[in-house]
Write a sequence for this structure.
């Protein structure tokens, strides 16, 4: 499961579906919530501040004031993707139950949403649960799912009040980067079979159109952050990360706050992005 939050956008409705769910029989599906879907995009109209209750205030001028002096607005990534790893380790280090690690992780999510909104990042994609995480003990998966559902329930109200749009992407409860590419291939193969396109028409642009992220304004993240010291993509966005800059933090996700985000953004702003071209 991944949640992608699109910031500083104007939109008409706070929830949108990029594709309809194929099944409505899954017990995790709730008509009121997007938590049944693997990838949810929230769009936020010029969000600039979220108060302690998590309520966002819309104020176009605050962004200028709040941007830390170390960061340059014109070099800010438009889309930041995050693999929020290390919640269990955070809890275990403190002798706490795993569930409290996940709860702390959700508090970190709220903080990062606020910071990204304040600092002018347009899209934030948070990878919370991969299809591979189903291999974890059922009790843990159940804890996670109920936490996600509760957090989303709580936040939907705030998002709505703040003018945040949740866009739902995907048609099952898993998000897997490999599966995303496979389903794009299947759709394209069908179009060839139906005579809509020819094999020679298949190119990167066409494939990108069929990926589940195609309804996000900036579907390819500029920056990927993974916490907790692991140096892997773990089947997150794969195609979309082709030219992303990578930043690995040793902090466990619940400890990833303002200083850590600033470090990641500052590192990003010092990179020279070449997209395969030679350095200048
Ligand atoms: C990441 O934290 C969150 C999910 C996969 C849902 P982990 O649960 O992987 O925490 P660690 O990596 O075991 O500490
Ligand atoms: Mg992990």
């Amino acid at each position: 499961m991944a949640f992608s939050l699109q910031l500083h956008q104007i939109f008409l409705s706070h929830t949108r579906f990029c594709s309809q769910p194929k099944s409505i029989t899954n017990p995790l599906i709730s008509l009121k919530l997007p938590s049944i879907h693997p990838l949810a995009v929230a769009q936020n109209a010029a969000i600039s501040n979220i108060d302690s209750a998590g309520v966002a205030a819309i104020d176009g001028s605050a962004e200028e004031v709040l941007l830390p002096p170390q960061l340059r607005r014109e070099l800010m990534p438009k889309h930041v993707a995050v693999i929020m790893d290390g919640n269990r380790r955070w809890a275990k280090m403190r002798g706490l139950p795993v569930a409290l690690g996940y709860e702390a992780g959700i508090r970190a999510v709220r903080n990062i949403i606020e910071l990204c909104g304040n600092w002018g990042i347009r899209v934030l994609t948070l990878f919370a649960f991969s299809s591979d995480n189903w291999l974890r003990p059922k009790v843990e998966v159940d804890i996670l799912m109920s936490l996600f559902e509760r957090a989303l329930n709580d936040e939907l109200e705030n998002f709505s009040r703040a003018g945040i749009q949740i866009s739902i992407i995907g048609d099952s409860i898993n998000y897997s980067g490999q599966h995303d590419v496979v389903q794009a291939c299947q759709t394209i193969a069908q179009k060839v079979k139906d005579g809509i396109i020819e094999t020679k028409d298949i190119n990167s642009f066409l494939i990108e159109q069929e990926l589940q992220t195609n309804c996000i304004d900036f579907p390819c993240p500029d920056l990927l952050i993974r916490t907790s010291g692991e140096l892997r993509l773990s089947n997150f966005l794969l195609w979309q990360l082709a030219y992303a800059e990578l930043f690995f933090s040793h902090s466990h996700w619940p400890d990833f706050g303002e200083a850590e985000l600033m470090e990641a953004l500052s590192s990003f702003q010092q990179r020279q992005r070449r997209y395969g071209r030679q350095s200048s």
About this structure: The helical segments are 62-66, 87-93, 98-118, 138-162, 177-193, 204-210, 258-269. The chain has one domain: 2-48+68-175+212-269.
